[in-house]
Amino acid sequence: MTVLLYTLGVLFFVLAILVSIGLHELGHLVPARAFGGKVTQYFVGFGPTVWSKQVGETEYGVKAVPLGGYVKIVGMLPPGADDLAEPAGHDELGRPVHRVRKSNTGMFTQLISDARAAEWELVGPEDTDRLFYRMAWWKKVIVMAGGPTVNIAIALAIFATIFATYGNPADQRTVGTQIAEVSACVLPYDESDRACEAADPTAPAAEAGLRPGDVVTSFNGTEVTDWPQLQGLIRDNSSGAAELTWTRDGEPMSGTTDTTVQARPGTGEDVDPARLTEVGFLGVSPVVEPTTGGLVYTLGEMGEMTVQTAEALVMLPARVFDVGQAILGLEERDPESPVSVVGGGRIAGETASTDLIPGTDKLVFLFLLVAGFNFFIGALNLVPLLPLDGGHIAGALYEAGRRGVARLRRRPDPGYADVAKMLPVAYVVAGALLVMGVVLIIGDIVVPLSAFPD
């Protein structure tokens, strides 16, 4: 049964990611067609074609490696300035037809020239008014932003639904002054995960007779109504006796401790006594539940996620390097390190098959995992570097700005932005993303992260 649940968890995650990729590409295809663009291919995956079908002018299909997808929009790269200046001929309506030279001098110019040539091999005279580079800048922005917008919309829909019903597991709130757990003893704070031993002093809460489920009503004569208030009273009572009242199953009860002891300092070598603060310790933890909220709450949480994701993207190369170090056995893998879709599938499988959490919580976690991946994919694709969608968006905005400045200065129209000149950068970025993806996949196989670490 465990193996079956694990497999179902992995399949759920993989299918959800494939659907997300497909919807991402639809986010490009639909507006491109709406604006008159010509889309010749729509594929989910990369590598060898597993299945495809021609429908009209577009070939739809699935490829063998499900790590992305693409749509082919004709005319993404404009011809070079020299080619535009000298048309190779005219079509039947008298419009100029431009061809692109297949050779040039210099490594980068050769690369750009070859890319233009490959792009324009599929362009016919009838496509002149349907080329992507000829679209208005705002249409280009909508087409290229459509994909990542779909991913972010998927994340928003999942987050909003879960936060409004189940609540946000990452934003826990206390439930009044109800007790969830009572410590049996007082442990050094850096040994809190070990069992109590005979030499460990009894926790004051256990001494007073408190049990899980009790609701504390007063502390040393002060009525308490919420956990932060109770926590403050406990912390400030580091050397005095504690008199408590509480209710258990609706019945009022009371108890006394000789003292609320100070939490003992840690015993590890890395403990810095100068940074420790001695506070009162009772030995109770509160009942908590996920905070619920509507669309405004969800948007606020996603705003914080945006900041965190931006920071993660900046640090991504360094964190992937650390994963590489872990693969080589030079250091332990950070539990907070990034994971690939392989790692995501593993975490989904472990979540689905564990007995540590109930079924509803499993389903919530799986959907949140899918939402998190969609949000990250959307944010990554908005980075303003080719070959990412954000690179094309940046090119369109640059074109709009340059033309706007020319109009204000009453200068001639500078024409379309030539994103082909950024192809060397695109190849470097693509190579870096490929290397980081491979490192993360290897890391998720060799030094995998677990959904439930020991």
UniProtKB/TrEMBL annotation:
The chain crosses the membrane at residues 141-164, 363-383, 425-447. The keyword Hydrolase applies. It holds the Pfam family PDZ_6. Residues 198-245 form the PDZ domain. Its cofactor is Zn(2+). The keyword Transmembrane applies. SUPFAM superfamilies: PDZ domain-like. GO terms for molecular function: peptidase activity. Residues 248-271 are annotated as: Disordered. InterPro entries: PDZ_6, PDZ_sf, Pept_M50_Zn, Peptidase_M50. It is a multi-pass membrane protein. Keywords: Hydrolase, Membrane, Metalloprotease, Protease, Transmembrane, Transmembrane helix, Zinc. It comes from the Bacteria. Belongs to the peptidase M50B family. PANTHER family: MEMBRANE METALLOPROTEASE ARASP2, CHLOROPLASTIC-RELATED, REGULATOR OF SIGMA-E PROTEASE RSEP. This is Site-2 protease family protein.
